[in-house]
Design a protein that fits this description.
Elements: H1 2-20, E1 42-54, E2 57-68, H2 71-90, E3 97-109, E4 111-113, E5 119-121, E6 128-141, H3 147-156, E7 161-162, E8 166-168, H4 173-197, E9 202-209, E10 234-235, H5 266-271, E11 280-293
Parallel strand pairs: 1-10
Antiparallel strand pairs: 1-11, 2-6, 2-7, 2-8, 3-6, 4-5, 9-11
Protein name: DUF541 domain-containing protein
Pfam families: SIMPL
InterPro entries: 26kDa_periplasmic_antigen, SIMPL/DUF541
Length: about 290
Amino acid sequence: MRRSFAFALLLASVAMPALAQTPPATIGDRYIPAPWWMRDPVIASLGQVRVEIQANRAFVSASFQSVDRSVAEASRAAADQVRALSQALSAYGADKVRVETSVTTRPLYDQYRDENGVMRDNTRADRVARYQADASVNVTVRDVRLIERVYATIVASRPTSIGQVNFNLEPDNSWKANLQAEAMKDARRRAEAAATNAGATLGRVKIIDPSGRVCQTDVLAGWPSYAAGGGQETTVDDIVVTGSRMSYGPPPPPPPPPPGGGAPSEAQIEAARLALQPPLQVMTDSACVIYGLN
């Protein structure tokens, strides 16, 4: 009797937590357990904002090539070509222009025709004809006011090849914080407009989710009506004070030419100058706020 009673208590202790748990929601079920914040009438408002900001980073690369029978001479010639350019660009300062250079070499072998008439390299150590040295320079322009002059300086240096100019946006933390604040305000505006149009008023805030995740489908009890909120961002201009539409002043004066010569002259740089305007990049953010309704 005692053994059966103890066994019954054990079963009860195991079953009680299982009965107390809410089964997980399954998408497609007819009835889905609602979260605690939906026991009373609520409105879930998804604030979405976007702003256009001028790119504040530019990237370009170039390479110089030299071929010689001596690997040392080939490397020296390529390094000499890139040295004057890297010194001229480094004179702007690492806070405005960052320059990375490297030199690589590879052997060029004698060639022969095989039995099919195809030219092939004779890749033997004693069949090296010449050495090819490639000196590359990778430039990151952190002050985009200088991109036109930096690019013209590279072109005037007459490299073997020049890469495409790429732009990117590296937003400051203050921009992100202000855009998140605008998303919260947008959620409030949308909720107030919806409640007023429905003949109700907003109650107290129940949930604030800066990620906007709570307002997405499965979290909000899996109702598909909340899934179609994307693509309705509000364009904001109030972020001007934080630098989203920064008005760049004139570029700083060019640095003095590096000693030793070899760098392109001022006339050569101006002759190679082209218009390069940083494009506008889009920043977006969202926030979910759930209000009670009165």
